[in-house]
Write a structure and sequence with these properties.
heterodimer, A: 111 residues, mainly beta, 6-stranded mixed β-sheet, 56% strand, globular, B: 115 residues, 7-stranded mixed β-sheet, 0% helix
Chain lengths: 111, 115
């Protein structure tokens, strides 16, 4: 069964304290791994797509990496405005684009 | 920028009412989706459509139906709303599968409360 697991469920950081969020997956055929940011009461906002092991993408303080079994979202010197829930999702079907989501990691960055 | 617009942000409906949630995308995407999001359960796929008039059931289709008469518009219908359908509903769209550029974009969500 295709599955996506994110850890930790919640993470509290001090401003400037770098850390990483993990997304591990077991799927029959990966057609893309997506990272989203979701603020309370809003829809998920697209951050990155990764397609193959070894691929990396960066945006401001965020960097996403991908291996054959997991992806990491590295947050460097976070700021309070980085506080949000970060969702990982995998696309397993090339026909439909259906996504399987992890449960998310809720990040709180304190000043 | 891709825009997925959900017509209603907040709705309160009575048990047994028929409810329509509307979604429009402006990027000529082939695929459109409806998810619901609940605390502790994450995002779950209700229905998706990969072309006009085409639809397929997702993981939790019971109690819902959909309509896609035009490429840009995808409607979710609750035939007879029940309290266990109180949730946040998210519409999304994406292009048809390619080797790259398959990003799925979400709308802002519709909060539905059934009383």
């Amino acid at each position: 069964e295709d599955q996506v697991t994110q850890s930790p469920e919640a993470l509290r950081l001090q401003e400037g304290e770098s850390s990483s969020l993990n997304c591990s997956y077991t799927v029959s055929g990966l057609r893309g791994l997506f990272w989203y940011r979701q603020d309370p009461g809003k829809g998920p906002e697209f951050l990155f797509t990764l397609y193959s092991a070894g691929e990396e993408k960066e945006k401001e303080r965020l960097k996403a990496t991908l291996t054959k079994k997991e992806s990491f979202l590295h947050i460097t010197a976070p700021k309070p405005e980085d506080s949000a829930t970060y969702l990982c999702a995998v696309r397993v079907s090339s026909n439909t684009g259906k996504l399987i989501f992890g449960q998310g990691t809720t990040l709180q960055v304190k000043p | 920028d891709v825009k997925v617009t959900q017509s209603s942000r907040y709705l309160v409906k009575r048990t047994g009412e028929k409810v329509f949630l509307e979604c429009v995308q402006d990027m000529d995407h082939e695929n459109m989706f409806w998810y619901r999001q609940d605390p502790g359960l994450g995002l779950r796929l209700i229905y998706f459509s990969y072309d006009v008039k085409m639809k397929e059931k997702g993981d939790i289709p019971e109690g819902y139906s959909v309509s896609r008469e035009k490429k840009e518009r995808f409607s979710l219908i609750l035939e007879s709303a029940s309290t266990n359908q109180t949730s946040m509903y998210l519409c999304a769209s994406s292009p048809a599968y390619r080797l790259s550029g398959n990003t799925i974009y979400f709308g802002e969500g519709s909060w539905l409360t059934v009383v």
